[in-house]
Predict the 3D structure of the following.
Amino acid sequence: MKTRERKQEDLNALTEHLNNSKSAMLVGFTKLTVNKDQEFRNHLRGAGAEYQVVKNTLARIAVKGTPYEGASEYLKGVTGIAWTENDAVILSKAVSKFVKDNADIYTFKAGIVEGRVVDLKQVEAIASLPSKEELIAKLMFVLNAQAQRIVTVINAVPRNLAVVIKLIGEGKTDAPAEQKTEAKVEQSTVEEAKTEEPKQEETEKSPEESPEMEVKSDVVAQEAEQSAEQETSQEAAPEAEQ
């Protein structure tokens, strides 16, 4: 049997643990075996929590004046307390899962999270949330992804420039679109100029041919005058004979 001094030491230790913790869970149990009790303790230890089976009278004194005082009404029957100084989500996940998997032995009494008393449904809702570590991991993934994209874009600029310089050195680059357009315009202009040159030559030759045409017209005019004179002389001859 524990002495009075021993009980006081247990009370002081429990009070200190609860004051330093951020959340706690109260569970009850029946037909508990040593193996199942050790399994539950190991499960909680893996979640960074501590566990202790307490006497209700001692626990009521320990929670008095603390954020856990609201759970005093649940300190009935056989009671075990699990608490943690770490993330409350991790403890909620650990307790809710183990109690659900071992419902024939363990029962959930109440939880205290940030000074508020919560029931099993609220604990399960908390357990469905991502833990602090998971949130940090997701945040780091997002930040790393953005940083990697920025690095990829920055590295792409000199890489593309190097490719262009290499192609220029090998003489494999095509002329820009504007230069191609100008070349086509110049080529079409030259072709048009070639087609217009014969027309100009014909126009220039036409004045050289005009003197021959004038000579022909003079010959025709002289022949007409001679035929007219002959007709006149023939008409005048009969009149002279008379």
Residues 175-180, 197-210, 236-242 have pLDDT under 50 and may be disordered. DSSP finds seven helices and five strands in the chain. The beta strands are 23-29, 50-54, 79-84, 106-113, 116-118.
